[in-house]
Fold this sequence. Notes:
By secondary structure, this protein is of the alpha+beta class. The chain has helices at 4-18, 39-46, 145-152, 159-164, 174-184, 197-216, and strands spanning 23-28, 50-57, 60-67, 70-77, 83-87, 97-103, 108-112, 119-123, 257-261, 264-268. The protein is elongated and about 55 Å long.
Amino acid sequence: MPELPEVETIANGLNSRVAGDTIESVWLGKKPEPLKSSAKEIARTLDGARIQKVHRVGKHIVFDLKRDKEPAQWIVHLGMSGRMLVAEPDAEIAKHTHAIAKLASGKELRFVDPRRFGRLSVVTSKNKLPDGFIGPGSEPLTISLDDFSQLFSRRNTPIKAALLNQKLLHGVGNIYADESLFRAGVRPRRKAGSLTRAELAKLHAAVKTVLKEAIALGGSSVSDYVDASGEEGFFQLQHRVYGRTNAYCYVCRTPIKRIVVGGRGTHYCPKCQK
């Protein structure tokens, strides 16, 4: 599933290519799973709307729209395999394309999702966002150390599971939790409440650093992820533990271990992380 850096990369790419454009028409496929709002609501909201800005909220891509002077939002969650692409109108339409928005510039916005875990929704003054659709978690790129410490300092769950809890932080996923814990020198099974203030400070800094580095490199392409232009990211070349089971740690040469924490495959260095 695309995590915060991948969604940020896609949102930034979309913003640079379609902000200021107008949606002239919308085609929606027959599969019901991707539609969190009804097809009529989506078409009615998008037709004729001007795209003011595209940005990320948690793991969601949010299009800020204006139609007939009324603000609205088109919200896209990529799920496991979703792609939001800007395409030329004569480009071949990929299999599993579930939505096409034709723009005044001649470009097309296409939502492609083979597994159909992605979701499309719209929000206007007349319809509210479904409860819990984006989630209440804090933004990891801007959260203060004090607020970060309060989130984890009294929790009895493993710190890896706590980092993945979208009600605490929204957008941090499996890859970046593993990489952040390695940078901070913290074992993933440590109880969150056992971390000292100094350890929480290291982890707070590591989360921000890892996410920013990943955004700068366009995210991690380890499965289906591509950006808005269909290009892969490069941060997977910088992974220090994730996906490196039994490979030597770059710091101490100890083999990287893989365990399961909270039902998720987890990678760490037994020597560097305490």
